[in-house]
Amino acid sequence: MTTLERWHVGPWTTHGTPPGEPFEPGRRRTPDELNFDVVGLARILGRRLSGREELQVRLWQNELRPTHTRLCGVHTLADPENSEQLRTAVLEALAWLAERAPAGYEFVYTDAVYLRPLTDLSAEVVTVDAVVQLAAERGDALPADRLAASQVRRSAAGWFAGDAVCNWSGPYPSAEEAADAVRAARVELANQLVEAGHADLAATASRWPEVHVEDQADQAATK
Question: Residue range 17-24: average pLDDT?
C-alpha cells in the first residue's frame, strides 16, 4: 500500500455545519453534503468502488447536487436510511484515507477533513510540521520554518521547494539542489529552536523524515 505522493497540512474538503447546528446556506455544507464530499475526496485520491457503489454515489449526487450552480448548505437526503448509508460510506472512506496518510500525519474529520501532523515527540517519526506547530503553540514563529517544512516538486521553470500554496525557494536546476536548500533550512530551524529555548523540539531533528521529492512519475499520477 502506498501513501499519498502529494499532501498539505490543513483542510482537504470544504467546511460543513456540525450535525444538530443551524444550516449556513451558501457558506457551509449540510452534514449530508459534507459526507458526500468526503466520499468524493477518497475517490479523487484513488479509492476504487464497485459498480453498485458507483451507482449509489450517482444517486447521492443527484439528490445533493442537482445542478452545478446549486447553493450549498441546503440539501439533505430525504430518506434517513439513505443518510445512514452515506455515513457508513464515509467511515469506509476515512479508513481508506487513514491508511494512506504520510508517516507522522493523520487525517481528522471534524467540520472538514484535515491532515494534521502528529505531535508526539517520542514517536519514531516526528515531522517538521509538528515541530513548527508546537513552537507556534508556545508563541514562537521561527524564520526558517516555512522552507524547513517544504517539499520539492518540479515545474516548467525548474525545481522548487515549497508547500501547497507557495514556492519558498527556487527554481533549481535539479531536485537534489532544491532538497539541499530544504535540508539547510532544517539545520537553521534546529539552531533557532535551541536559541528560542525549545531544545526538546530541536532534539527530534534526527527523526525528521527525508525531504519529500515529487518526481515526474508522481506528478503524472496525481494530475
Answer: 92
What is the arrangement of strands in the sheet containing 10-11, beginning at the earlier edge strand? 10-11, 113-117, 105-109
- Please state the rounded mean pLDDT for residues 144-163: 94
Is the Cα dihedral 68, 6, 116, 48 positive or negative? positive
Domain count, the chain: 2
CB-based contacts of 169: which residues, under 8 Å, 6+ apart? Answer: 147, 150, 160, 161, 162, 178, 181, 182, 185
Does 198 fall in a domain?
yes
Distance, C-alpha 207 to centroid of its chain: 21
Quick count: other Cβ atoms within 10 Å of Cβ 102? 18
Characterize 18-36 residue by residue with b for buried, 16 or more Cβ atoms within 10 angstroms of its Cβ, and e for exposed: eeeeebeeeebbbbbbbbb
Q: Are 159 and 171 in a shared domain?
A: yes
Q: Examine residue 18 and say whether the peptide bond preceding it is cis (omega within 30 degrees of 0).
A: no
Q: Which residues contact 145 (CB under 8 A, 6 or more apart)?
A: 128, 132, 135, 189
Q: Is the pTM of this model over 0.85?
A: yes
